[in-house]
Each structure stands twice: as structure tokens, then as C-alpha cells.
Amino acid sequence: MHCKLIGAPVQDGTGRMGCEMGPSALRTAGLVQALEELGHQVTDLGNVSPALKREISHPNPAIKTLPEVVAWIEALDQAAYESSADGFPIFLGGDHALAAGTVCGLSRRAHERGRPLFVLWLDAHTDFHTLETTDSGNLHGTPVAYYTGQKGFEGYFPEVKVPVDPANVCMIGIRSVDPAERAAIRQTAVTVNDMRTIDEHGVVALLSRFLKKVEEANGLLHVSLDVDFLDPNIAPAVGTTVPGGATFREAHLIMEMLHDSELVSSFEAVELNPFLDERGRTAFLMVDLMASLMGRSVMDRPTRSFA
């Protein structure tokens, strides 16, 4: 497979500095080598730069860095659209606001191909706020509401040309949802699998059900992996740690199942903040997970010690 690496050093969507170093950390942790060892061709397209920033303001006084985030959305929408013409785009984040751009670009490409886009959202949060409902003002909490065409972004964020059908979004790992998000998402067909659901049913049943749906629809599948999907004991390098996340084996099993499905057409790794890491352990874990997605088996996994 031809893997295209696209850096998205976005940190304007979060209230904490450091995510802009995420793409470099993933590269330094050996992503290119890991993919090439699996037999893939790798082209590193470098980092995307934001579009020209313009003055934009919103009545919600809590909102931070709106012009900056809009500039990133515009640039990443186009980068995702162009890079998905052929090959397998892998977006290296950067905070989760980047998905507002990447998913919109991928959805446009899927629409041109006459195929629906599905999104697997691996995250502790639903990111279903709008510009009107966010209390923190951190816009990395808005991308899913935006790319599924919810109201509350008109005149501020770019127009979503091809919204993703909420019924095509499956969330796994959810364990921190604000009341406004909970109320809004319940009005949609988004599938939300929180950690209790995982405890009760396991990731195999939940993911298998979703993958069957993608296959039956002849869909394209984008996977968005937030570091805070993982338990902070194994992945500390994120500014939004929430206890009780996915275990090492649960995360790898999901990646292995995704590889076996042969349905994934694009991927993004987000919210890695190397400034908060411990000797690169989170960056190495994220690279290992991407390697599992791209074909590394349990028997092939190298030994790594952080002692």
C-alpha cells in the first residue's frame, strides 16, 4: 500500500501547548521505518500549513482561537481531499480540531466516488459541541458535530459540502461527555459505545457490528484515534486524560481487526502532546498501533523496554 504521511501540527483547538510537536514525535518514534518494514511504500508529504487567517468572532465569549482553527480546517480539508485521490493518507496530529478539516475533505472524495464515508471515532470524548454550546471554548471539542452537519457553525466554520451521515459514525471508548453534547447526540443516529458498553460486550462484538455495516454499504472507512482513547497509565502524553480508557490489548485488537477487515481507507492519530510524555512511550505506542493497523501481527511485535 502507498502510505502518505501528512503532518497536521494543530494546537489551536486545545487549551494546552504542545500538540504541534505531535507529528515530529511520531516520525521520530519510527513510523516510516515501521511501515516500510511491513512492505508499504511511504511518502512523507511534510506538514500542512494553515490557510490565510482572517478575523472572525462569535457571540460565545468562551470561544478561543476561532480564526486560527478556521484556517486549519480550510487547509486540512483540501489536503485530505487531494491526498485521498490515491494511496492511503495518514494524518499526524495535532489536536482533534484537525478532524473538522480532514473528515470533510475525505467525505468530498468519497462522494465523488459514489461511496459513503464512515468514521470510527476512538476517543474518550464525543466532541459533539457546537460553537454555541461549548463552555470551555476549546474547539477540539466540536469536529463531530461540525462534519455531521449539525447547526451552530453557519457563517463561522467553512460550509460542509458533503456532511457525513451521523448513522455512519461509530464511537468507541467514550467516558467523558458534557450535558449539552449528551442531549444533542441523542437526537442523532451516531453509535456511541462508552466504556461500560465495552466492559459488558467487549470490543470484538461492537467493532464487528460496525465493520459489517461498512462492508454492506461498500463504504470507505476513516479511523480517528485520539490518544485519550487509551488509558493514561499506558499513554500519558495527552492534555485531556480520563481514567479508565482502553487497555494495550484492546487497542491493538481493534487495530488488528481493522487490518483484517480491509475496509480502512484513511487514518489519523491526534492529541499526542510530547511535552507530557515519558521518554516517548506514548509516541512509540501510537506508532505500534498504526503498525498493527497496517499489518503487524502479535508474533512480529518487537520487544521494547522503558525501565
Structure characterization notes:
By secondary structure, the chain is an alpha/beta fold. It has a single domain, classed as Arginase, Chain A. The protein is 35% helix and 16% strand. The protein has an eight-stranded parallel β-sheet with strand order 2-1-3-8-7-4-5-6, with helices on both faces. Helix 5 (143-147) links the parallel strand 4 (117-122) and strand 5 (169-174). Helix 8 (248-261) runs parallel beside helix 9 (281-293). The longest helix has 22 residues, at 195-216. It is globular.
Corresponding CATH superfamily = Ureohydrolase domain
Kindly report the average pLDDT value.
96
Shape: globular
Q: Helix and strand succession?
A: EHHEHEHEHEHEHEHEH
Biggest sheet strand order reads 2-1-3-8-7-4-5-6
| Helix content class | 25-40%
Number of domains: 1
* Quaternary state of the chains: single chain
What are the segments in which pLDDT stays under 50 over at least 5 consecutive residues? none
What does the main sheet amount to?
A: 8 strands, parallel
